Amino acid sequence: MVSKDEPSERFYLVVEDNPAYGRSLRQLLRKWGTVTVVTSVRGAKAIIASHRWTALVVDLGLPDGSGFEVLEAFRAVHPATPALVFSGQHEADDINCAHALGAKYLVKGASRALIEQFILSAPSSARLEASVDVWQERYGLSDAERDVLLRFALGESRDLIAELRNCSPLTVKKQCEFILLKTHAASMQDAVSRLLREVVGR
């Protein structure tokens, strides 16, 4: 779990069209990193791929669509990055949809402590790297496999990893297969979930 004093570059994306909530979230999150607030689905989609985001906070009722559109687009690029739906709506279908997309759900009016709990559970890249180093030694991962695992844990998609590593998606797929074989994980999501649990527990 990251502390407020940990020297790590962290980027938070907030998608909120209510000015008061936007200001409040910016003020709260800037204690831990750089905060970008956008007010629409279109604005969010335009910058989703611009950073290796530490976390996403998204409202559902946006002027040009649903926050779920943002979350789905975000998941396509950042499949493992922590996300929080922070909404005035509290329908069961919305809560279930958020969970299906790997996001936590808080209803507006929730205490600052609950929001901070979500933020503090998002691991920093420095802590992730340290844990991936442990896994590399524990499971005998190659340097390439270590890098792929770290990138997945940081929320990058397979296609983006291939692009950034200047290799084919098939190469990344093969490296993932080796990671799963060595770590005895059922999927990359399973491996990342185990890794993140270790990071939070450190």
Report the radius of gyration as a whole number of Å: 17 Å
SS strand fraction: 5-15%
Q: Kindly state the number of beta strands.
A: 7
Q: Which structural class matches the secondary elements?
A: alpha/beta
Q: What percentage of residues falls in helices of 4 or more residues?
A: 40-55%
Largest sheet: 5 strands, parallel
CATH superfamily of the largest domain: Response regulator
3D shape: elongated
Any guess at the CATH architecture of the largest domain? 3-Layer(aba) Sandwich
- What's the CATH C level of the largest domain? Alpha Beta
Mean pLDDT: 87
Order of helices and strands, N to C? Answer: EHEHEEEHEHEHHHHHH
By DSSP (H or I, 4+ residues per run), the number of helices equals 10
CATH fold-level label of the largest domain: Rossmann fold
Low-confidence stretches: 1-8
Number of domains: 2
Q: First CA to last CA: what distance?
A: 7 Å
User: How are strands sequenced across the largest beta sheet?
Assistant: 2-1-3-6-7
